[in-house]
Specification:
414 residues, alpha/beta, 4-stranded mixed sheet, 14 helices, 9% strand, binds 2-acetamido-2-deoxy-beta-D-glucopyranose, membrane, Glyco_trans_14, transferase, transmembrane helix, glycosyltransferase activity
């Protein structure tokens, strides 16, 4: 019995060694396969293996170092669901969507980001928006776009006029709308305004929250790498030329259009605080309308600045308003030579007081619109004098919509 047992033991030991060898061989195989998978993943076929890779790795306990690969199943912002857009049946679409492989790293997501919703904080958003490609050529046919950024206190009464203005030019523009949080814009799904509300926060007029909202709009618009010019508008703004004219005016301009002037009164220099020294000196200080138009480079500069902005947040308090001084001063200090120092948005301050004139239905005539379009005020465009100074105008009451729609084709060319 004992011998037999010993023999059994020996046999068992041999079996054990055999198993060990088998395990060794298997682990070699495992490592080899992992190598192949990594090799494939690193190859140009990365997208094909994308979804299955994290699952395969998580089921194998020996790949602790590889488990750090994040879960890409929920992609937001620039990541795009590649399911077919032309699929009509709702149920079929949903089922198909589930089966589709989501390529979260496709360049398409950068080029045609479809979602403006995201869960990034302002800090995360501004950091991401500040990224600049170093390589000069784009790996796609980049058609520069104009980003129309609406800073709205609620509904957009001029929406039908804007829709008419945009029609047929969708390829050359993007729309972004910042509204009070919780406000839901109800527009039809074929409108350029559909699903274009950016994650918004409360805005108090005259406070730094207003400049925060401007920066938030800029940063959201920067996420689309095709946006080249960025124009800030309000719900009371209207276009006064057709899209072709506006687009070519902005895209071909060597200058940005930010109102920036020195006002030696208490409404200008009087709002400067010596506490901003030594970084901002009185001779740097500028004033200007908040309704700016900037190119991509300057937009990135504005959202990337925190040094000067924090000084404004601390020391520019009523009767100092950051929205009237921050961007005009920043541009004067660092980008003065590429600023036209004028706004492309017409406004009438002639009535005096803190608010400009508002135009309603009774005021809208062909003569009035022509006076905005061809104002005698001489201005420079790419160093040449021109009478075309304004592309947009404010302020217009909701009642002005009907006569403006009526005159848009005969007077404004759209
Ligand atoms: C993905 O989204 C679902 C539903 O919104 C959520 O339950 C899940 O936790 C998310 N996963 C990750 C990794 O964020
Ligand atoms: C949105 O607008 C449509 C058409 O104008 C209307 O039928 C619908 O009730 C509106 N929805 C909301 C939530 O207001
Ligand atoms: C836009 O207006 C200009 C004149 O301001 C005109 O020459 C041009 O044909 C118009 N473009 C379109 C597409 O209507
Ligand atoms: C705008 O003002 C800056 C000073 O901030 C100046 O250098 C620049 O030449 C001005 N631009 C034009 C087009 O006059
Ligand atoms: C607009 O028209 C009304 C009525 O004719 C007039 O009282 C008002 O002064 C006009 N407003 C402006 C800004 O011209
Ligand atoms: C130009 O615009 C100003 C207001 O900005 C206005 O007072 C003036 O009458 C306009 N000029 C012409 C020729 O229409
Ligand atoms: C539209 O314009 C024409 C001519 O300018 C005018 O006769 C008509 O009353 C206007 N209609 C509206 C709704 O303003």
């Amino acid at each position: 019995m004992a011998r037999v047992r010993a023999g059994e033991k020996e046999e068992g030991l041999e079996k054990h060694i055999g198993l060990l060898k088998l395990a060794q061989t298997l682990s070699f195989l495992l490592i080899f396969m992992a190598g192949i998978i990594i090799g494939l993943a690193a190859s140009s076929h990365i997208d094909r293996y994308f979804n299955s890779l994290p699952q395969m790795l998580s089921s194998s306990s020996s790949s602790a170092s590889l488990q750090t690969i994040p879960d890409y199943s929920n992609c937001t912002v620039i990541h795009r669901d590649c399911s077919n857009d032309d699929d009509d049946g709702g149920g079929v679409k949903a089922a198909k969507k589930k089966d589709e492989i989501r390529d979260c790293w496709s360049v398409d997501g950068f080029v045609r980001p479809e979602e403006v919703r995201h869960r990034m904080s302002d800090d995360e958003l501004f950091w991401r928006a500040s990224m600049v490609p170093v390589k000069e050529e784009y790996p796609y046919d980049r058609v520069p776009k104009v980003a129309f950024m609406f800073l709205a206190r609620g509904p957009l009464p001029m929406l039908p006029l804007w829709e008419k203005f945009f029609r047929g030019n969708e390829k050359y523009l993007s729309v972004y709308v910042h509204t009070p949080p919780g406000y839901d814009m109800n527009v039809s799904s074929d409108s350029p305004f559909y699903d274009r509300q950016v994650p918004s926060q409360k805005v108090a007029w005259g406070s730094p929250l207003l400049t925060d909202a401007e920066k938030r709009l800029l940063a959201n618009a920067l996420l689309d790498f095709s946006n080249e010019r960025f124009v800030l508008l309000s719900e009371s703004c209207v276009p006064v030329y057709n899209f072709t004219t506006v687009y070519s005016y902005l895209i071909n301009s060597a200058y940005s259009f930010v109102d920036s002037y020195d006002e030696p009164t208490r409404y200008g220099r009087g709002r400067y605080s010596r506490k901003m020294l030594p970084d901002i000196k009185l001779h740097n200080w500028r004033k200007g309308s908040q309704w700016f138009e900037v190119n991509r480079k300057i937009a990135i500069y504005i959202i990337s600045d925190s040094k000067y902005y924090s000084l404004f947040k601390q020391y520019c308090r009523p009767a100092c308003y950051p929205d009237e001084h921050y961007i005009p001063t920043l541009l004067n200090m660092f980008h003065g030579s590429v600023n036209a120092n004028r706004s492309v948005t017409w406004v009438d301050w002639s009535i005096g007081g803190p608010h400009p004139a508002t135009y309603g239905a009774d005021n809208i005539t062909e003569g009035f619109l022509q006076s905005i379009r061809k104002n005698e005020t001489d201005c420079l465009y790419n160093e040449e004098p021109t009478s075309l100074c304004f592309l947009f105008a404010r302020k217009f009451a909701p009642s002005a919509l009907a006569p403006l729609m009526n005159l848009s084709s005969t007077v404004m060319g759209f």
